[in-house]
Amino acid sequence: MKKTRASDRSPPACAECGAPTRAFREPHRYTIAPKLAVTLADAEILRCPKCGAFSVVIAKTNELRRTIASEVIRKPTALAGPELVFLRRCLDLTGRAMARTLGVSHEALSRWENEAQPAPATVDRLLRTMVALTTLAGQRFPLETLAAIDGAAGPLKLVVTMDAKGGSWKRAV
């Protein structure tokens, strides 16, 4: 049986008007948490020439999220609020559950996530370690990067792309 590739199939009909869509490859801003987005360098966009509606096809979303999480926890500066939210969601925890896990009040966690107050360095390191040990299990991760956190900065700016074979996501900056 012959396998069909995405490029061999005809694009689906537009969800808005029913007209056939056309596939394009272009950069796309992908929001991963409130106030935090990455640019997908080569996203597949299905666009309707009739009504202008479009949808984005994202292959292997779990692998994409792991790639982004890996880059976020490797950054040498303190985590920004939106990054805290993203990493908490990677651990599949609510705000209250994360606060209990960290041994802090829900209000304190909320202040850190909303950037009203910076998260303590110990909480920053603990969250990175939790993500490294759970979400990124099986990937080689240099834990010495956790000791290199040296102050506050804005959210990480990252561009990711899928490899040429469509097999995995990688950093493209």
SSE series: EEEHHHHHEE
Strand content: 15-25%
Number of strands: 5
Number of helices: 5
Biggest sheet descriptor? 5 strands, mixed
The CATH architecture of the largest domain can be named as Orthogonal Bundle
Distance between the termini: 39 Å
Alpha-beta content class: alpha+beta
Principal-axis shape equals: elongated
For the record, the count of structural domains works out to: 2
Describe the structure.
- This protein folds into two domains: 8-59, no CATH class; 63-152, Orthogonal Bundle (434 Repressor (Amino-terminal Domain)), CATH 1.10.260.40.
- The chain contains five helices and five strands, in the order βββαααααββ.
- The chain has helices spanning 61-74, 81-90, 95-102, 106-113, 121-134, and strands spanning 22-33, 36-47, 54-57, 159-162, 169-171.
- Strands 1, 2, 3, 4 and 5 form a five-stranded mixed β-sheet that branches.
- Strand 1 and strand 2 form a beta hairpin.
- It is elongated and about 55 Å long.
